[in-house]
Amino acid sequence: MVDQELFSEVLKVQNKIFYLDLKENGRGKYIKIAEKGKYRPKSSVVVPLSGLHSFIQLFDFYMNSEGPGPQSRDVVVESKVFNFSCGENDRGRFLRIFESGGGYPAGGSSLMLPAGWGNANIRAFRESFEKIASWLSQTGMPSIDMSSGLALTSTPDAVTLDVSKEGGPVLSVGSKHFFFDARMNDRGRYLKIKEVSGNMKTLLVVPAHAVAQFQEAISIAMMAPPRPDNESPGGGVMQGGPGGMGGPGGMGPGGMGPGGMGPPGGMGPGAIRPGVGMGPGGMGMGGGPGGPPPGVPGGPGGPPAQQQA
């Protein structure tokens, strides 16, 4: 089924034009927001229809705020994550909407909406989304539940568990979102875990036969006392191993001597142990013929100076 346009709205905001289109294809209904401006290349985000009420709430939230804040907000819509954040530049305050996940293997796409005087442009976006909800209601489409939506007052570390469009669980922890998906290929079954945080995405693949041990490893790791981030796995700070500057040679026979700094050297336990010398010969310059002895006669002199009359 080709994409069919159901409803369209055009917003002119300063030197930009935004196209808001409600469309439908074989996977369902969605809202495409496209930005065309003078200073940025054309970009767009695609919002599944199930995210309509959350977007309205977020527009309402930022519409009633001032300054470059407040802090950014994330909303998970099926297999996508949309990050809302406010900023300010020489052209004024703006609202940035960043889409990640979905069909983006890495990175994502973003819109930059100038807020306008008294956040008038954010208000216009909110009204356009309300028009889409109203049109759906008037045409007999399934109604959109406007009573529930994004919990804007939740703490950053709030933990929620939801279900993605593909049917897999989505675990949200503050601004991080983990998507779990059981897959299969010619090598067998596996569990795909995708972490999405803002515009960053990380992928982890666990073979199906190792999932139980993977869970056990997590449990064992969590039972151990936590270590500071700057501590090495062996304890302490950056311990060295044996070695040092050992080895024969140096500057000819008797130079640095065998053993050099001697084991264990470096920054390892014991550091430079008592009694470790510089090896036989110390720093001697032994070996090899010496330079010219003192008092080597010079060459013939130059011509005598000319006497004056």
What tags apply to this protein structure?
Nuclear Transport Factor 2, Chain: A; four-stranded antiparallel beta sheet; Secreted effector protein pipB2 fold; 309 residues; five-stranded antiparallel beta sheet; DNA-binding transcription factor activity, RNA polymerase II-specific; RNA polymerase II transcription regulatory region sequence-specific DNA binding; single chain; alpha+beta
Question: What does this protein look like?
Answer:
Residues 227-249, 272-309 are annotated as: Disordered. Keywords: DNA-binding. Pfam families: PurA. Belongs to the PUR DNA-binding protein family. One of its GO terms (molecular function) is purine-rich negative regulatory element binding. With 309 residues, this protein is of the alpha+beta class. Among the domains are: 1-149, 2-Layer Sandwich (Secreted effector protein pipB2 fold), CATH 3.30.2450.30; 156-222, Nuclear Transport Factor 2, Chain: A. The chain contains 3 helices and 13 strands, in the order ββββαββββαβββββα. It has helices at residues 52-63, 120-138, 211-223, and strands at residues 4-13, 16-25, 28-37, 43-48, 73-77, 80-89, 92-101, 108-114, 159-163, 169-173, 176-185, 188-197, 200-207. It has a 5-stranded antiparallel β-sheet with strand order 9-10-11-12-13, with no helix packed on it. Strand 2 and strand 3 (28-37) form a beta hairpin. Helix 1 runs antiparallel to helix 2 (120-138). The longest helix is centred in the middle third of the chain and has 19 residues, at 120-138. The protein is globular and about 55 Å long. Residues 145-149, 151-156 and 237-299 have low confidence and may be disordered.
